[in-house]
C-alpha cells in the first residue's frame, strides 16, 4: 500500500518499545506524532508518561492535526486493569484544509505500519474524555 507520507523507521521502533516496554505500567501514556511537512514523514512530536487525558488535551495544538498513540489505563468492572493501545486521529476544525487532507490520507497507512487496531477520530480536543474512551473500549 502506498501513502502520501512515509513513517520514520526509527519511529516504528520507538512505537514497538512503547507498546511492549512497560509491563508494570501505571497510568496512561501518550505518544504524540506529527507529519514533517517538508519530508512528508510521520515523526515523533512528544512522549508523555503517566498523563491524564485532561492534561493531554491541554498540550494538543489548537490548529494542527496529530496522531496520538495512547496506552490507556482501563479499569474493568471485575477489578482488572488493562492497557489497550489506541490510535486517536485528532484533527481540529481550525486546521488548514490541505493539512487535514494530508493527515487524513496518511492515517490508514500509518495505522497499518504501526499495527494499531483500535482507531478513533476526534475533531475537538475536549471530546477526548475518560467517559468517551471507556465507552468506546468496553
Automatic annotation (TrEMBL):
Top-level taxon of origin: Eukaryota
Compartmental location: Cytoplasm; Nucleus
Keywords, ordered alphabetically: Cytoplasm, Nucleus
Ranges annotated as spanning the membrane: none
Predominant localisation class: cytoplasm
Cellular component terms per the entry's GO annotation: cortical actin cytoskeleton; nucleus
Domain ADF-H: 3-138
SMART domains, A to Z: ADF
Family: Belongs to the actin-binding proteins ADF family. GMF subfamily.
Protein name per Swiss-Prot or TrEMBL: Glia maturation factor gamma
Originating organism: Gigaspora margarita
Amino acid at each position: 500500500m502506498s501513502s502520501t507520507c512515509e513513517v520514520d523507521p526509527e519511529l516504528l521502533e520507538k512505537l514497538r518499545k512503547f507498546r511492549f516496554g512497560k509491563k508494570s505500567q501505571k497510568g496512561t501514556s501518550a505518544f504524540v506524532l506529527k507529519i514533517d511537512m517538508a519530508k512528508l514523514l510521520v515523526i515523533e512530536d512528544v512522549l508523555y508518561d503517566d498523563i491524564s487525558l485532561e492534561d493531554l488535551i491541554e498540550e494538543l495544538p489548537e490548529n494542527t492535526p496529530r496522531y496520538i498513540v495512547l496506552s490507556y489505563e482501563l479499569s474493568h468492572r471485575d477489578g482488572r486493569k488493562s492497557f489497550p493501545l489506541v490510535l486517536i486521529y485528532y484533527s481540529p476544525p481550525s486546521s488548514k484544509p490541505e493539512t487535514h487532507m494530508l493527515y487524513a490520507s496518511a492515517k490508514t497507512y500509518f495505522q497499518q505500519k504501526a499495527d494499531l487496531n483500535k482507531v478513533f477520530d476526534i475533531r475537538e480536543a475536549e471530546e477526548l474524555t475518560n467517559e468517551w474512551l471507556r465507552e468506546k473500549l468496553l
